[in-house]
Design a protein that fits this description.
The structure is a homodimer. By secondary structure, chain A is an alpha/beta fold. Chain A folds into two domains: 2-80, Tetrapyrrole methylase, N-terminal domain (Cobalt-precorrin-4 Transmethylase, domain 1), CATH 3.40.1010; 93-216, Tetrapyrrole methylase, C-terminal domain (Methyltransferase, Cobalt-precorrin-4 Transmethylase, Domain 2, 2-Layer Sandwich), CATH 3.30.950. Chain A is built from seven helices and eleven strands. The first copy, chain A, has a five-stranded mixed sheet, with helices on both faces. Chain A has a three-stranded parallel sheet with strand order 2-1-3. In chain A, helix 2 (15-18) links the parallel strand 1 and strand 2 (28-32). In chain A, helix 3 crosses helix 4. The radius of gyration of chain A is 19 Å and the shape is elongated. The N and C termini of chain A lie far apart (41 Å). Strand 5 (109-113) of chain A pairs antiparallel with strand 5 of chain B, so a sheet runs across the interface.
Chain lengths: 222, 222
């Protein structure tokens, strides 16, 4: 990752991530707002088409609810045919939260975004039901935002139709940053208004348990 | 990760991973066979209980079908009460394969092990159906082993009951090693006998597509 960043002429991305890349001679940093992923990607592809070397940065893993899919989306434009795209993996937010908690995703799991900005709520709800019925551990990205405050309560209601109120839930906030916090609760006790855009949730399978050593999901199903 | 490995007295794990940790004075490397995860974890906890500092290593991310859950499983034994366990995340195999292919897990996805060594096949099949019906991207760990050759064909059959034969499938083999290879096929064209224990599969959602720039799944569902 550092090697790739050392070789580029431009860094493009959401401001907090761009600012983590140290300034150096020959590097131009382009910081943008959130929620303009495809514009940002097209801007990067424009630079690359003109022969510049460009890195688009994300938090966590760019391939997991990061900028990678937005870059491929923008690259569908024939204007960018011939621009080479390479994705470098990183540690995703779900893995950072899981490791801090113990081993909650130690068995089959699903990863979903709760945002209905890019898909209808009916699709979110259908997927929540499928994951709950199959008793998969579920990591939830984007559980809330400034404008989306109701979804997490709606999601809990849907999950509680298929899962026990005793199901273990891990709430990670700002994990990997100085102000990080982690709490362990249950699906029945989870307080939706306490969940904001900085949170990532891991909702356990029926077998997920809390031990003195940490939260973990057995590898086996008996 | 390197900082943690520099501080331990012992490294414990499956031989190929243990041998990646450079030998140094004061470090004892304990290499074991595969498929004895909990014995290996108990061995590590025994050392730790006697005051030794021990690292248990896995390939990819220890928290994703790696050794972390096995360590927590062994740590349930009251003999190990008081042994502190800390998990450090890494880049999992699914992320390594995804990044090499493009952005196939750019939307909601599930990660499953196809092995029926630790869960009944009926559970595997039920989960495959749920994931397929919910149109999640699906990463498949342990698609085959020396003794398990039939599961991947059975899984394809189940998935084809719910998904199109045109569904994009990425097959990564030994990704991250010198001998790595990657191929892109479809669910209908996938050749089960070609899949072995070194493979990780990513079965696309209905929207997953192959572009000149790579394989990607749109973030949106319309």
């Amino acid at each position: 990752m550092s090697a790739a960043l050392a070789e580029v002429d431009h860094v493009v991305g959401y401001a907090p991530y761009v600012h983590r890349v140290p300034q150096r001679e020959g590097l131009t940093r382009h910081a943008s707002g959130n929620t303009v992923e495809v514009d940002r990607a097209a801007f990067a592809l424009d630079l690359a088409r003109r022969g510049e070397r460009v890195a688009v940065v994300s938090g966590g893993d760019a391939g997991v609810f990061g900028m990678a899919a937005a870059v491929f989306e923008a690259a569908e434009d024939p204007a960018y045919a011939g621009v080479a795209v390479r994705v470098l993996p990183g540690v995703s937010a779900v893995q950072a939260v899981a490791a801090r908690a113990g081993a909650p995703v130690g068995a089959d799991f699903a990863v979903m975004s709760l945002s209905d900005r890019l898909k209808p709520w009916e699709v979110v709800e259908k997927r929540l039901r499928a994951v709950a019925e199959a008793d998969l551990v579920l990591a939830i990205y984007n559980p809330a935002s400034r404008s989306r405050r109701e979804q997490i309560a709606m999601a809990c209601k849907v999950l509680l139709e298929h899962k026990s109120a005793e199901t273990v839930v891990v709430v990670g906030r700002d994990v990997g940053r100085a102000e990080e916090s982690l709490s362990v609760t249950t699906l029945g006790e989870l307080d939706p208004p306490s969940i904001d855009m900085k949170c990532l949730l891991i909702v356990g399978a029926s077998s997920t348990r809390v031990s003195p050593a940490g939260v973990w999901t057995p590898r086996f199903v008996r």
